[in-house]
Amino acid sequence: MSEARAKTLISSDGLAELLEAGAPVVLLDVLDEQGAAPADRPRIPGALTVHLATDFSAKSTKTSGKRPLPDIMDLQANARRWGINPHCLVVVYDNAGGAQASRAWWTLRWAGFDNVRILDGGFPAWKAAGRPISTDHLEAADRAGVVVLGAGHMPTLTADDAAAMARDHILLDARGKAAYLGEPGKAGTGHIPGALCAPSGGNLTADGAFRPHAELCSSFEALGLDGSRQVGVYCGSGNAAAHAIAALHAAGHEAALYVGSWSAWSADPSRPAATGPERG
Asked: What pLDDT shows up at residue 142?
């Protein structure tokens, strides 16, 4: 495994070895929002249930997009309740293709905590490996962590930055192809002019794991990522884009997140939208 991939992902076997050895691991089972899945659903034993909407984001407004950046003190308070300390490992996972876990991964890194990994393949990979499963529901509790967080450790884009990135560098649209194409003549659909269609699902194998290193590198090279231009990513609300950034990191590329993404861009009637397969 490449160093970049090892700093982004962890396998089910790797996680199991750490847990069996009693290593200091904080395991987070990530949902998008409250009520998104049954409380008694199967999960990895010991995992805390966390939510992107309330634990990793500020309150959404029309101009901020669906999942704005959190207040750093609120995020720090949450991280301490989860028991996160400077030298522990945080492993995030979900049961929905990895986008939710990737947004939690990205947000912790944005806040300056680098020792966080995405469980490659998520809960399905853990289950397929025959690992233990629990239906115990653990909400975040006060575990007296002492981590200190600070904002701004991952690059972000404003709407103007995203427009400039699409024009002068590379801006990837991580949504599905249908969302990128939009509907001609229908307001609020389409893509940021100049953006490339690059669905985050294309970075996964059929079983939901991240594609091998060589395959990721090849697909990103086909999009023109050769190190000579900056890269930005957006999606609908910033989750799939964070997933794409995780794949980029695993392949050794850096990329900035347009946090507001299409949910913020399309809410501003002054922002143009391109429809159809052309970049625009």
From this structure: 67
